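User: Could you go from structure to sequence for me? I need the amino acid at each position, not a summary. Structure tokens:
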């Protein structure tokens, strides 16, 4: 019984206190091993030979200890012992790193910078590009885009007609459901100051298509989508919180939108932002099959049936459009270019984000090369210690665990610091990102980003821990070379590896420098594009007139004229005018025209032109150049003259090689239409081209400028095709004082005319021009930062490699100097060797940049992705900096005292 109790207590001790058992085994093995070593000493062997013979005879202590663990079993106690061993290695590694603060700090900071940059960009890519839309089965959602092959336009007509909506609803078999919508700005009044808000008119089917439901209340019913039904409104979560304090009692109350009272029936979730972020409320789009419009005034989104591909849907929609064109000729020649909704929302920004992620990935590789060099230096300085460990029985697994503990600690510390940098970096990215970056409000650190950072840290740790294993040499060689006078011998064997890392750093840094150089030149080209107007010293804002108070075109025009007169009286204002839309902002009314005296062209879309309704003096206020004829004056507005001004692109398309002044054109209407024909419009002037949607437009679009008194209005149906509606106009104030100083005076002047009118989109013309190049500027800035960081890390790496080579060759250099070598020749030798590695890296970088040039071609403007000037200047600059980094340690080597150097032999 006593023996049984003793065994039981020992077993409990082994299970609960496995460390005591490990120490007993270790002490017993060490005693046996030392006894065999003593036998060797007595036989006349030296210390090294005695221990080597003991190891051959006794075997590996670590191997025997591992076998003892196997005998104990693979149960909980075995795992506990393994965990204790790992914790012991981590504890020892932490001590070693604390005693090497320079190495630890350099490695952690380098990794933190690279990992933080990668985590920042990954956060944006994950949320904007990868993360699905917050809708049910988002990959079955498509945006209904169209193209016109006859005009060499593969896509870009994102709008559609109500006729097509009902046609697809009734006849499509590939679409499970379809919805249409638009987005306008309107004035919201009541419970606070008047506010310009973004209103989207959407069909009741929209929530069914997207698979979402209001957070409170309901969406629109089918009855509310019929013309003449009571107005209803659904608020966005942002507007509900901002204007109504998140009060649920707002449901059932009325809001006034452009003078129309609508009952609030629902509130959408905070994650719902359709058709884009910043939409404030939704109202039902009202139409029936009987009164369906043939104008392209709404946009469409649809959900595919299960198992239907987007290619199949495109083919079916194109066929249905062809059928519809038999009764609606204005849709003739149009084909479907439907695309995934995610792609439509993300758009061109995805390519830029992927490029940036690749750039910071290159920065990480450069950082890893730097840290790998640090690990090589650390390994070289500890070869003797590692050799002794191996002589005592530590195999490759032991050495791996020895360095893995260090690399894991360094990488996790770098990852933690990098995550903190990423948190700050994401906020800077959001702050300085372009306004058109989609889903920007959703960007932030989450569990996926944390997991990505942890995985990145562990991956770098695994790479660094493998470096010593690749450089292991026989124990005897390591111990022999580790003695005095042989320190450089082992180091020389690692020069090639260090030089390879140095060349890789140069190659990767040059690749990023070339990419950033191409973006910088492209940005310069874009900023030098003439927008066609003078963007300096001009303030702009828009004013929308409530339809209930201003229900006719005549009343709307009179109100705008009164506002213009009041604004012109503001001190410092030198010119003032208004337009239905401004350059670079898009969204203009458009239609095709016929030229008087020519055979009518029934292919209506072939001469599509953009219309702008303007007030008198518009060209002077905008600073546009008048090329021929005259502009539009106040008299043209007051007399409702049917005079128009066209741009040079319009003249080239409609009147090639002819003078357009005095010629008349007419806005087209559908054949067999019961509507009266629009008036003939007389061209009285030609002005310079202005960019309509973007600075980098492939070719200028034809544009027509007409007096606002003959354009559309609140009391004129869109089908009249007279021109853009003048309810909302964008004002331009050119001033002799800084434009920002006019904002308060402009608000006061407008309030004198109507206190319920609100100013929206208050900004300068220069702001509009700047925002047109925001995306390229954003990409350029981040690429330049990545290139600068990679260059800095690369140069530090070059300097470190050459400095280490000099320190290892101190004795050799001393001998050379003692034998009469000139210090200058010694310095030149070191610079030449380092420069050769830098040149090899630069050649590799040029090849890599040439191969990857196509990846950023779509982001460039006006230059080739293989621009010789960029390639030449960046390569020359990098080699110059690299040679300077080599020269600094070479200069120090040339000043070595031969006597001091020889003493180290």
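Assistant: Here is the amino acid at each position, in order:
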């Amino acid at each position: 019984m006593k023996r049984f109790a003793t065994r039981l207590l020992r077993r409990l001790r082994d299970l609960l206190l496995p460390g005591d058992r490990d120490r007993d085994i270790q002490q017993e093995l060490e005693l046996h091993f030392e006894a065999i070593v003593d036998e060797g000493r007595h036989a006349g062997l030296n210390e090294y030979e005695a221990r080597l013979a003991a190891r051959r005879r006794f075997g590996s202590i670590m191997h025997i200890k591992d076998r003892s663990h196997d005998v104990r079993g693979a149960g909980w106690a075995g795992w506990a012992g393994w965990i204790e061993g790992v914790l012991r290695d981590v504890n020892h590694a932490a001590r070693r790193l604390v005693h090497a603060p320079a190495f630890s700090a350099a490695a952690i900071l380098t990794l933190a910078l690279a990992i933080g940059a990668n985590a920042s960009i990954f956060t944006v890519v994950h949320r904007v590009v990868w993360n699905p839309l917050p809708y049910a089965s988002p990959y079955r959602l498509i945006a209904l885009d169209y193209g016109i092959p006859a005009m060499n336009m593969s896509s870009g007509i994102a709008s559609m007609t109500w006729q097509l909506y009902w046609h697809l609803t009734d006849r499509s078999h590939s679409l499970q459901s379809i919805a249409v919508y638009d987005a306008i700005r309107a004035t919201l009044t009541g419970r606070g100051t008047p506010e310009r808000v973004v209103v989207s008119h959407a069909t009741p089917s929209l929530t069914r298509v997207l698979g979402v439901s209001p957070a409170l209340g309901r969406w629109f019913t089918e009855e509310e989508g019929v013309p003449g039904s009571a107005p209803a409104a659904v608020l966005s979560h942002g507007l509900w919180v901002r204007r109504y304090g998140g009060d649920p009692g707002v449901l059932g109350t009325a809001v006034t939108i452009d003078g129309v009272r609508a009952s609030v029936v629902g509130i959408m979730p905070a994650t719902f932002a359709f058709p884009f972020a910043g939409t404030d409320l939704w109202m039902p789009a009202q139409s029936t099959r009987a009164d369906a419009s043939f104008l392209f005034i709404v946009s469409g989104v649809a959900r595919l049936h299960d198992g239907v591909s987007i290619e199949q849907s495109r083919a079916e929609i194109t066929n249905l459009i062809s059928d519809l064109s038999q009764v609606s000729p204005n849709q003739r020649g149009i084909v479907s270019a439907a695309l995934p909704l995610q792609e439509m929302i993300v758009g061109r920004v995805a390519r830029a984000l992927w490029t940036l992620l690749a750039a910071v990935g290159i920065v990480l590789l450069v950082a890893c090369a730097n840290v790998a060099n640090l690990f090589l230096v650390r390994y070289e300085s500890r070869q003797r210690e590692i050799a002794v460990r191996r002589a005592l029985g530590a195999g490759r697994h032991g050495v791996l665990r020895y360095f893995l503990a260090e690399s894991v600690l360094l990488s996790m510390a770098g990852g933690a610091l990098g995550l903190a940098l990423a948190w700050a970096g994401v906020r800077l990215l959001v702050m300085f990102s372009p306004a058109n970056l989609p889903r920007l409000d959703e960007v932030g650190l989450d569990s996926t980003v944390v997991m990505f950072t942890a995985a990145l840290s562990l991956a770098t740790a695994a790479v660094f821990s493998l470096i010593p294993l690749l450089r292991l040499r026989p124990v005897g060689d390591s111990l022999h070379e580790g003695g005095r006078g042989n320190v450089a011998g082992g180091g020389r064997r690692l020069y090639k590896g260090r030089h390879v890392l140095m060349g890789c750093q140069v190659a990767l840094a040059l690749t990023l420098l070339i990419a950033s150089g191409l973006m910088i030149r492209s940005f310069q080209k874009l900023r030098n594009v003439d927008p066609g107007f003078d963007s300096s010293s001009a303030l702009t804002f828009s004013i929308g007139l409530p339809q209930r108070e201003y229900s006719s075109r005549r009343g709307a025009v009179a109100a705008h004229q009164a506002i213009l007169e009041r604004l012109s009286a503001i001190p410092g204002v030198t010119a003032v005018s208004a337009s239905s839309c401004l350059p670079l902002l898009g969204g203009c009314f458009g239609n095709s025209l016929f030229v008087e005296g020519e055979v009518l062209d029934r292919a209506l879309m072939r001469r599509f032109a953009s219309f702008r309704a303007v007030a008198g003096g518009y060209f002077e206020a905008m600073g546009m150049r008048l090329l021929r004829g005259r502009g539009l004056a106040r008299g043209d507005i007051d007399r409702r003259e049917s005079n128009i001004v066209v741009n040079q692109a319009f003249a080239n398309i409609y009147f090639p090689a002819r003078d357009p002044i005095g010629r008349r054109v007419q806005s087209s209407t559908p054949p067999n239409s019961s509507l009266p024909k629009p008036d003939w419009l007389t061209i009285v002037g030609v002005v310079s081209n202005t960019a309509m949607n973007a600075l980098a437009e492939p070719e200028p679009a034809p544009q027509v400028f007409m007096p606002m008194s003959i354009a559309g209005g609140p009391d004129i149906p869109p089908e009249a095709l007279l021109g853009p509606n003048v309810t909302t106009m964008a004002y331009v104030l050119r001033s002799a004082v800084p434009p920002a100083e006019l904002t308060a005076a402009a608000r006061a002047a407008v309030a004198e005319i109507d206190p319920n009118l609100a100013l929206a989109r208050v900004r300068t013309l220069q702001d509009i021009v700047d925002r047109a190049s925001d995306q390229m500027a954003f990409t350029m800035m981040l690429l330049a930062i990545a290139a600068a960081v990679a260059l800095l890390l690369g140069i530090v790496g070059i300097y470190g490699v050459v400095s280490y080579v000099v320190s290892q060759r101190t004795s050799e250099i001393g001998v050379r100097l003692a034998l009469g070598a000139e210090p200058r020749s010694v310095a030149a030798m070191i610079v030449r060797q380092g420069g050769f590695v830098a040149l090899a890296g630069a050649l590799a970088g040029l090849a890599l940049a040439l191969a990857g040039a196509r990846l950023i071609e779509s982001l460039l403007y006006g230059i080739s992705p293989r621009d010789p000037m960029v390639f030449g200047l960046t390569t020359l600059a990098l080699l110059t900096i690299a040679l300077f980094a080599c020269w600094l340690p070479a200069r120090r080597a040339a000043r070595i005292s031969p006597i001091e150097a020889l003493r180290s032999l």
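One structural detail worth keeping in mind: Confidence is low (pLDDT under 50) at residues 4-9, 11-22, 60-78, 474-493.
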